[in-house]
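Recap for those who missed Tuesday's class. We walked through two folding examples back to back. For each one, the amino acid string is listed first and its predicted structure tokens come directly after. Nothing is annotated here on purpose, so try labeling regions yourself before you check the end of the notes.
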Amino acid sequence: MRFGLIYHHQLPRPWEEDSEERLFNESLEQIELADRLGFDYAWATEHHFLEEYSHSSAPEVFLAAAAARTNNIRLAHGIVSLPAAVNHPVRVAERLATLDLISGGRVDFGSGAGSSQLELGAFGVDRDTKKDQWEESLEVITRLLTETPFTGHQGKWVDVPPRNLLPKSKQKPHPPLWMACSARTTIETAARNGIGALSFSFVSPAEAKEWVDTYYDIIASDECVPAGRDVNPNFSVVFPFMCHPDEETALDRGLDGAHFFSYSLMHYYITGQHRPGVTDVWQDFQDNRASVGLTREPAAPADGEEPTAEAKAMLEQITSLRRGIGTPEQVAEVIRQYEQAGVDQLIFSVQVGKNRHEHILESLELFAREVMPEFVERREARETAKRERLAAPVKAALGRIRKNAADVSDYVISPELGA
């Protein structure tokens, strides 16, 4: 089992003049500590215009700062939005390679198509074609990183002529690929492409086992045709996290942040009517949280009343928000369940809502001291068995990589006279 932290850079109102500066500096201090404590990954999201929910619009800059302050922790994009109108594939490849070099080969590359209409609409990305745009851009990026020279691409969404990308990444053939996943269908897509699955749904251990089994069944089948030039067979789960020796204190410190994360996510993706620069999401959360069940003790059905399927789903989602909040013993037991389900990495959302910086630091230290050693002790044997189990399927999948046969040996670029 590997452990990571993910940063959305949440910043609920009201804001002060230095709020954003303090937010980024505190996040870097947390990653610096996590590196010393032995955490494996620091993930950074990419979002645009999602006030309070995510001020993480330039993760490549943030991760570069983290690279300068750390030695071992992997620095991961979770995720880069790949429609070319948001991030041109050439620029993505250039930034990835540069970050990989300055970090000593510690970069992981998660990607996705984006989903919030507030973001997609700002960049003119068509929701109906965004997945096709993601697929095309990912192919171009991995080829740019691995071909010398890149032999060119003419597609539906982006054209790139033959060029030689500079610099090239330290990791060969390229940094490990991951994909944002929120449903079984996207889990299957990740597996078919030989890409690590970043499960951003707060799934239970039982659900995780179903998804993990599906994912690895496809990885081991003829359906797996790598989108890049390598296979990254890994499955991760994300959930809010706060650890303290006293359960009630852990809940006091972490539950409001988890609830705000859920509420602000629903605001931008499902229920909200947002006025840019005006809507106060934190105040809306305070006013309306009880009506959507985001309270210390979720409302249970009345005696004798059979809850609807929707009510059951909502109760499970709300319950899942506190799964990683508790004492070391409680958190360890939850992790054991995910470990048994076959999950490879747990990613903790620590910097959510108004969670306090000092509480996050204390929680990370406690977890590293009292919980992590048990799972680190089992890690080598578990990962060795996994490599042996997947060796033949991965080798077969690598043999199915689509090759680019374009010949550009006669391609020459001449300066335009008078330019």
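Example two. Treat it independently of the first, because the proteins are unrelated.
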Amino acid sequence: MTTSGLTFGIYPLSVAGTPTGLAVGPKDDYDKIGKALQLLRGDSNRLVPRNYLVYTKPDSEPGLISFVERLLHSGLLGDLAIGWLQTADIVMDEWLAFIRKIVREYGPHMTSLQITNEPNLSFMEGSKPYTRQALVEGVIAAKEEVLKCGLQMKIGFGSVPESPVSVPRFWAGLAEIGGSRFVNSLDFVGHNFYVDVFEEPLVLSDIPASVERILRDLRQNHLVEAGIPASVPIRVTENGWPTGQNPFTNEERTYDHQSAVLDKVIRTVYQLREELHITHYVFFGLRDADSSKPDLFHQFGMMRDDYTPKPAFSVYQRLIQELGN
């Protein structure tokens, strides 16, 4: 198991998902993004940008490739996740060909590729009956291309905590179709979770226990059920605590409390890293989609939409230096 610090990451762009679509606002300023990431990194390289591709069908590829090129030339092509829309149907051969193309053409500039983002969430990628097959075959295809090209990038897949909206028997089904070839192709399992965001608010002292419960459940129950050994690391691939107003509870969420929750969550992940083999923590995200909108979906950032920092920015900056690899 790991005895080093955490590798930190951040989603550097502004668009965020909501229950009814996308939260958008002022355009991303790539120059300001670069300066903000450099401030977070300090004198180290302890911060990796994480971005997303949403694949639909072959005629979407030119736009996706253009986006990847923009990331590459802006210094933001680090960790990349490829998923698909719940409203689109993918063709397996085309899906695998796209994955191989990304690995072949951009793998030398990437640190990792995650196949699927939230495949066990029933109203996201998990809404499709072929989800587990696309996940398994995608991981295997990506790893084959990595080995063929002699690359160092890591390959994994994504997940979220179990809930009433999870895909039934997702982990058991993964074991049934995965097999040793799939497991041997895995370099990590990503996990997206948001403590005290979409449920009743927690007092600050209860945050560590909630984080620990989520991560233990993944390692000790679901990964075991899927036949994935403890030697495969967990990455916290999305975590955050937005400011603004919770539209479901009308609770006001302050900048100062965002900082306090961030510190509690990261220190808990750090304390569990050896026992549960956790190697990465990624914050979502760098800036708000639109700071003028009061709802939390527009205010996930540790910076406002004009790139002025909230207090959480300096907290993350300090934790990267203190707990990072």
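Answers for example two:
Residues 9-323 form a domain with the TIM Barrel fold (CATH 3.20.20.80).
Helices lie at 30-41, 61-73, 92-106, 131-149, 170-185, 207-225, 255-276, 311-323.
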